[in-house]
Amino acid sequence: MIGREVSHRGTADTSVAVAACPRNGIAFAAAWRYDPGMSTDRPRRPHGRPPQRYGKSRPAGDRPDAREKQAPPRWMGGDADADGVVLIYGVHPVEAALANPARKIGKLYLTENAENRMQAALTARGVTAERVTPRDLDNRLGADTVHQGMLLETEPLIELPMNALARTARGRPLIVLDQVTDPHNVGAILRSAAVFGAAGVVMTRRNSPPLAGTLAKSASGALELIPVARVQNLARSLEDLKAAGCTVIGLDGEGSETLDETAWPEQPVFVLGAEGKGLRQLTRETCSRVCRIATDGQLASLNVSNAAAVALHLAHIRRVKGG
Fold first, then answer.
1. Cβ–Cβ < 8 Å for 171, 267
2. Domain assignment of residue 5, given as a range
3. β 105-110/86-89 pair status
4. Which of 32, 59, 73, 222 has the greatest number of C-beta atoms within 10 Å?
């Protein structure tokens, strides 16, 4: 059963019941407010008239604001449960997670077709999956989620310190993200980092997406391949990288020189800002230099994930050809 514990709870004026459907194991919730003065025989509403309220109305201060966002049920959410369980879905992310010995495997939910497709990976990891239907996963993750018939409950990977990434880089570039919040972009950057052999990705601890769900799906398995470090103070961390011998290159459309023309460093670090805002002022001032990507078209700017891919590809060429 995918849903959490079945429960029944109530107060003097409110009752809430959560039950599990025996057919597909999905939990449903129902809530109602009991009022002794409320009529149980509601008269039919005349045609064309607005609905009337029956029974005692609550004071204005007790009425919920319809504009307030209600918290999603415990069994919903595309990145993590209310209990902090990390959710990973989709063929490539789940397959890569099963192949990663550092990834702890919790519960794995597969449809019949997905189980047949993942049989080799299940056997190699020694994991038994729980059979579910596509509707079960839709109810758990949302109807718009492209889960491809599989969902893995797991724990976050162990974070590596940033200085460890710098020590083991050996000329391979590091990517630093300055409050890039879109999980699709971060996932795409991780994928490019895996393709072009980056040493790792550094993200701010705040204003960064969770390493799960949408990000993992966009990374297409790269989340299990590229180490990620989270830092509290980005400017101080960039200073630490410079002290460790790295050259910190900020990427910005208003950079003083193009990236392909700049003197290539032994250990490059590329810093990219969020969509729209770009690099924050303190981040820009902390960089060793600020470069732009050469363009030749009517549009002069790139999406942050595309900019990262261009920089990583150039770094790969320079590394292979020896600068």
1. yes
2. 1-38
3. unpaired
4. 222
Q: What is the overall mean pLDDT for the chain? A: 82
3 state DSSP class of 62: helix
Tokens of 22: 């025996």
Domain closes at, from 120, 154, 188: 154
pTM confidence score: 0.74
Q: Are residues 146 and 181 in the same domain?
A: no
Distance, C-alpha 58 to centroid of its chain: 40
Same domain, 241 and 147: no
The answer to whether position 284 is within a domain reads yes
Closest-CA residue to 139 (of 6, 27, 30, 214): 27
> Tokens 């080799």 appear where?
120
pLDDT band, residue 227 (cuts 50/70/90): very high
- Looking from the CA of 52 toward its CB, the CA atoms found within 13 Å total 13
pLDDT tens, position by position, 125-163: 999 999 999 999 999 999 999 999 999 999 999 989 999
Q: What is the CATH number of the domain that holds 290?
A: 3.40.1280.10
DSSP tag of 108:
E
For residue 231, the one-letter residue type is V
The answer to whether residue 80 is domain-embedded is no
Judging by beta carbons within 10 Å of its beta carbon (0-12, 13-18, 19+), is residue 130 exposed, middle or buried?
middle
Same domain for 312 and 178: yes
